[in-house]
Design a protein that fits this description.
This protein has 204 residues and is an alpha+beta fold. The chain contains five helices and twelve strands. A six-stranded antiparallel β-sheet has the order 4-3-6-8-9-10. Strands 1, 2, 5 and 11 form a four-stranded mixed β-sheet that branches. A two-stranded antiparallel ribbon has the order 7-12. It is a single-pass membrane protein.
Length: 204
């Protein structure tokens, strides 16, 4: 946490921490492939054999520290250095910037997950074939053809079908009120047509 005065009189500080390799992974020379970027590469640091790092000549202010590795992802940390040389580290939250979750300083950077540069190719599965709409449309009629004859042989289903057909016939039969109105209206029209025919004959 030492500070250095530059020519303009502004204090320069050192951001320190340690990077841990991925758990349960045997990596050779992972320190060589790893870099520490401050503010997107404005300041760059390197890792020692034990995983520790120190980025020098960093001015006061708020700085985003990132671990750059080609295969593994690390969570970035925001380090704030005030004019008195006090450090405060917190998680980076670009969505809720007002939310402050402090982390210990010197930094301890751990790998989150491995990068996936390529999407995994989809594999053929039997369930995808069975749940295909075209296959379902072909299989359902076959099942109906095989199941319906067996259902028809069952006496209970026969009785149910008879009841359904009887209800359908009852619903098709016209109501008595409609029959009576048709009879009366039909009789009146027939009488009117007969009287008109008699008048025409008398005139002739």
């Amino acid at each position: 946490m030492s500070s250095v005065e530059d020519e303009a009189g502004n204090s320069r500080y050192v951001i320190e921490g340690r990077v841990f390799p991925p758990e349960n992974q045997v990596l050779s020379n992972w320190q060589v492939e790893t870099r520490i970027h401050v503010n997107g590469g404005e300041y760059i640091g390197f890792i020692k054999e034990d995983g520790s790092f120190a980025v020098h000549n960093v001015p006061t202010g708020s700085h985003v520290v990132e671990v750059v590795h080609p295969d593994y992802m690390y969570e970035p940390v925001r380090v704030e250095i005030n004019s008195k040389g006090k450090y405060r580290a917190r998680r980076v939250n670009y969505i809720q910037t007002s939310q402050v979750i402090q982390v210990p300083y010197p930094l301890r950077m751990k790998a989150l997950s491995k990068f996936r540069y390529f999407q995994i190719r989809e594999q053929w599965r039997l369930t995808d074939f069975l749940f295909n709409p075209m296959v379902i449309m072909m299989i359902l009629p076959l099942l109906l053809i095989m199941v319906l004859p067996k259902m028809m042989n069952d006496p209970e289903t026969k009785e149910d079908l008879k009841q359904i057909t009887n209800l359908a016939k009852m619903s098709e039969m016209p109501e008595m009120s409609e029959v009576i109105t048709n009879l009366f209206s039909g009789g009146a029209t027939a009488k009117a047509s007969n009287s008109k025919a008699k008048q025409i004959k008398k005139r002739q």
